[in-house]
Amino acid sequence: MNTHLPVATTSAAIEVTDMTVAYGDKPVLWDVDLETPPGVLMAVVGPNGAGKTTLIKAILGLVPAAAGQVLIHGKPYHAQRQRVGYVPQRGSVDWDFPTSVLDVVMMGRYGRLGWFRRPGKAERDLAMQALEQVGMAEYAQRQISQLSGGQQQRVFLARALVQDADVYFMDEPFQGVDAMTERAIVDLLKGLRSAGKTVVVVHHDLQTVSEYFDWVTLLNVRCVASGPVSQVFTDENLRKTYGGRIAFVGRANNAEPTPGRISTPAPAIGV
Questions:
Q1: How far apart are CA 81 and CA 256, in angstroms?
Q2: Beta pairing partners, 34
Q3: What is the pLDDT of residues 149-191, one digit of tens each?
Q4: Distance of CA 172 to the CA centre of its chain
Q5: Which of 32, 85, 174, 203 is the most exposed place for a label (fewest CB within 10 A)?
Q6: pTM of the entire structure?
Q7: pLDDT digits (tens, 9 = 90+) for 182-193
Q8: Based on C-alpha coordinates, what's the Rg of the chain?
């Protein structure tokens, strides 16, 4: 069990109030309240269709919300945009676009440069440092289409690093990567947390939640529970979240999770 806990502060890193998102007449998120303190590594978990990706996109203003308010370190997101980094799902990107690894990473600096200033030596140096952090410096001039899935994910993480954000949102960064890349990503995320950053990760593997994260949000259209893993990652909350579709159940007493068998799958809600 990860025992890292944030230092008490006066304001939340992320505060979501009454967030509701609907596609047509179908609610994808319903009246979600969420408060995440600074300096935590938080997993967002839930079944397919729970609204995990939609939650991140709604916080970032990438999908319209029917209702709700988002504050980043006490101010509206649009006023804090430069303090936020985002790593989308790898599958949502056109990897055939003809550009180099280095250029992709330098794109992470555009928010600070503005679109009318071209990146210079300082930005190039920062990009190379980020590529070194993720073990991809030797691929700087490689076309992104020539990379493996794990290498592409590392490049995305490097692009987020050069943003030098205070809050990071990452949508399934472990999807489709090998064990070595997954360990490298975990080490990188824990390094960000140690530097006082807040990192929110959409995550699917319940078996690694206690190992990788210190904070967790359980989501299924509504927020079932959110807080320290040791307090909210329990059998009861997991059953509420997955509605009978869970194949692996955590323990409430900080012991190792144990496999569970739950029948009667519930229908998915939302997208």
A1: 39
A2: 16
A3: 888 888 988 998 888 899 999 999 998 888 888 998 999 999 9
A4: 7
A5: 174
A6: 0.82
A7: 998 999 999 999
A8: 19
Q: Which tokens belong to 173?
A: 């960064």
- Measured between alpha carbons, how far is 124 from 13 in angstroms, rounded to an integer? 29
105 near 164, Cβ under 8 Å?
A: no
Tell me the DSSP string of the chain.
Answer: -----PPP-SS-SEEEEEEEEEETTEEEEEEEEEEE-TT-EEEEE--TTSSHHHHHHHHTTSS--SEEEEEETTEEGGGSGGGEEEE--GGGS-TTSS-BHHHHHHGGGHHHH-TTS---HHHHHHHHHHHHHTT-GGGTTSBGGGS-HHHHHHHHHHHHHHTT-SEEEEESTTTT--HHHHHHHHHHHHHHHHTT-EEEEE---GGGHHHH-SEEEEEESEEEEEEEHHHH--HHHHHHHHTT--SEE--TTSSPPEE----SPPPP---
Reading the block at residue 151, the tokens are: 């290498």
